[in-house]
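To the team - NAP complex, inputs and output below.
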Amino acid sequence: MPSSLALQQYLPHVSRIAYGCMGLGGGWNDNPVSQQDIGQAREVIEVALEAGINLFDHADIYTFSKAEQVFGEVLKQSPALRDKMYIQSKCGIRFEDDHGAGRYDFSQSWVQHSVEQSLQRLNCEQLDVLLLHRPDPLMELDELATTLNSLHQAGKIAHLGVSNMNTAQIAYLQSALSLPIVANQIEMSLAKTDWLDDGIAVNTPASANTGFNTGLLEYCQMHNIQLQAWGCLAQGAFSDAGLESEQKNIRKASEYVRQLANDYGVSSEAIVLAFLLRHPAAIQPVIGTTNIQRINACAQATNVTLTREQWYNLYVLSRGEALP
Ligand SMILES: NC(=O)c1ccc[n+]([C@@H]2O[C@H](COP(=O)([O-])OP(=O)(O)OC[C@H]3O[C@@H](n4cnc5c(N)ncnc54)[C@H](OP(=O)(O)O)[C@@H]3O)[C@@H](O)[C@H]2O)c1
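Output:
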């Protein structure tokens, strides 16, 4: 089992699995939030906490800000819940509007505005972690560093992370910051294994095609940056739905997931996540399900430590081809 979770250095009691709030708020539509949406958020929060999951991952944009809104309504009704959880949110993505196309924005005015709006919606004083959602090519390094430092000094953000960034982008950003970058959230799952493929393809022709930023995994581990995995359930592709897949690799891997789930006496979702948990980088899966049974099914993953052989079997079956 991985020996440490990097984020625990900053958030001492953070859970191995995080809950992704992108599904809360009643969907990506203009409907106002309903009591039912708030009720769903409450149920999900309570079930996650009960299952030992205490990091809640937001973004200013999720369901057009309604995910943060319903979450904040629950915290307003039950303020004591705040002390039981860590809240992470993201900023930097802007939707198409009267001013222009969908874009990224790390300007002082946007980052500050976004964080203040998130805090207001969430009904809380401070984000435990702020992630910069996607790299903005027009980022002015000194302007961003000043903005983040002042948000930190004002107590609006406790810690800083990034998402979907490569090694050079993280190092460049860190060069201007006094705050350490504590997390990088990227897509990682049995369906998206480029983060592994890149490492094993070294010195083979396949190395040209993995699409992954070489060295990112090692960089994050060396600098104590928590790797968080979005899309970690692969939308259920390797859980029981995968048993019917027409893609042979998905079907075979799903059959093996099912077999391991039976052997360990856990859910298929637990095995899918155990694949990530077994990696020495101590990856933190961010689960996006709003299904109560599935949240509990996911939480079982922390009871499983796959053997080296089981881990490689899963990897090779999902790749659909032998290792080089
Ligand atoms: N940083 C980024 O750029 C970024 C991008 C995307 C997401 N995220 C974060 O990561 C979290 C997770 O991402 P995600 O939601 O894309 O990925 P996910 O956790 O892999 O997938 C969740 C989705 O898959 C469905 N699902 C899971 N297992 C299933 C199964 N066995 N059968 C049928 N459906 C199943 C869920 O439906 P049910 O609700 O019905 O279970 C849900 O719609 C998000 O909530 C968000 O916090 C971050």
